[in-house]
Structure formats: structure tokens, C-alpha cells
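Suppose you are handed a protein chain with no further information: no name, no annotation, nothing but its sequence. What can you learn? This example shows the usual starting point.
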Amino acid sequence: MHRGLHYLRRWSQLLSGLFLFGFAAAMMLRASLGVDPWTVFAEGFHVTWGFGIGWVIVVSGLVVLLIWIPLRQRPGIGTVLNALLVGPFMEVGLALVETPENFVQRVILFAAGLLMMGIASGLYIGARFGPGPRDGLMVGFNARFGYPMWAVRTVVEVTVLLIGWSLGGSFGVGTVIFALAIGPIAQRAIRVFRVPDYLAKDTGK
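A reasonable first move is to predict its three-dimensional structure. Written in C-alpha cells, the prediction is:
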């Protein structure tokens, strides 16, 4: 495959993955069944102070990137774009998607959003331009201090969930379903969309 096509594939995966990720988060939020901890966190700031949910996600992502510095983590271009674009893409989704009145339709909307987010994770992570800010935080604490990645992820997710919930964010059965299902879905998607080693090296990992 030509070098230029390598770049086209990876950049297409990265940008489409980030867009779908933000849009999927908006779908799950509109379903009103509960969302992932970071969206609960952003929604809490929105409810309490009126900040746009997408913009809270952008600011929190940039703050998390600052924590990378003492952890000696190096962000990739995908990391930076993740921090900057997911929030605005989520705002697009919130502007286009409304909450269905029918419960069954809300369940379908949530399920579609969850599946889309898992696929989106496979797309942008599989492009291998760097992990998202929050994923890198988990890796950084493990590399710097030896803490198990699952423990770091759990502490961070529970902390932001409790903060967001206390501020008025929506915790529900969807939050539990998300926690149980997003990992397996994303893992399968990463296997499908992961750029092979020789392509990543050829175009610069």
C-alpha cells in the first residue's frame, strides 16, 4: 500500500472515530438512562453552573493532559485531538438528537450509542496516534508508580462519577451497563481496526 494511503487510512480512522465517539456520548445522554462517569461529571457542571457539557469535557481533558507532565507521559497527535474534538462533536450530537418520549425508543437510542462508542473507540485507538487523555492517565500512574491500571481506572472513574452525581449529573442503570459492556465492545473493535505494526512504523507511530 502506498505511504499516502497509509496516512489516509489512519487519519480517516482517527477523525471518524472521534466524531462518532462524541456523537455516541450525546445519544446516550439524550436516552436519559445513565451515562459514563465522565459525562456524569460534565453534566453535573452543566446542571450546577450552566457550562456546556461538551466544553466541560474539553477542559477536563486538557486538565488531565497537564497531569501527564509529572507522570512523564508523551501525548500523540491523537491524544491532543481527542481532548479538543470529542467535546465539540458531542455538542453537535446534543443539538441534533432529542430525548424520545417512549421508553423503548430510549433503550434503543442508548444501545445504539453504546455500540457506536465501542466501535468509535476501536477506530481512534486502532489508528495508533496516541491514547486518549484519560487512558494515558491510567498508563502513566502504572508506569510511574507501579499502581495496577485497573485500580487507577477504578479510582478515577468512581471519583469523577461521585463529583458529577453530587452536582446533579444523571446516574442510572445505563451507567452500570456502560461500565460492564464498553470494555468488551471496544476490545473487539480495536482488534478489527488496529493498524498493523508495519503500517504504523511506516507512517510514524
